[in-house]
Amino acid sequence: MIKSIVTDLAPELMARNAIGLNSAAQLLLTAGDNPERLKSEASFAALCGVSPVPASSGKTTRHRLNRGGDRAANSAIHIIAIGRLRLDPRTQEYVARRVAQGHSKLEAIRCLKRYIAREVFGIIVRRHKQINQAQIAA
Q1: Is residue 80 within 8 Å of 4, Cβ to Cβ?
Q2: Alpha-carbon span 69 to 45, nearest angstrom
Q3: Residues 83-121 pLDDT 10s
Q4: Alpha carbons 137 and 131: distance in angstroms, whole number
Q5: Burial letters 106-130, b for 16+ CB under 10 A, else e
Q6: Within a 10 A sphere around the Cβ of 73, how many other Cβ atoms?
């Protein structure tokens, strides 16, 4: 039952690399439970707990992941990131490039999770607008 609902609500989300049924369902639940908080992709990232938080000291400038937000959504994005890191050559190149720039692998994954949140937010918002326009036209 969940598969048919998720596929109907967000087929483009399910078509993306390394986004499985459970991860897509969790991200849709997170977005649907908090429509008033979804004003931008940055707010969605904060809601999912993948927004960067400054963690600099002295001469070092770095960020860490936000520990707030929906932990289930953060877990879903983490699973997507690890899946892409294993399967997607573009993601592997991205992480290798970040590590070559001097970032740790964890910092590179943090950046990857933020990118995934940005991508997912765009898909969810586009699909929400399509559904609303279809309901208005009907």
Answers
A1: no
A2: 9
A3: 999 999 999 999 999 999 998 999 899 899 999 999 999
A4: 10
A5: ebbbbbbbbbbbeebbebbeebbee
A6: 26
Find out whether 73 and 27 touch, Cβ atoms under 8 Å: yes
Written as one string, the DSSP assignment of 10-61 is -HHHHHSTT--HHHHHHHHHHHHH-GGG-SSHHHHHHHHT-SEEE--BTTB-
**How far from 47 is each of 34, 94, 119, CA to CA, in Å?**
9, 24, 15
Sequence-ordered list of residues with C-beta below 8 angstroms from that of 32, at least 6 positions apart, any chain? none
Alpha-carbon span 112 to 91, nearest angstrom = 8
Q: Which amino acid is at 96?
A: A
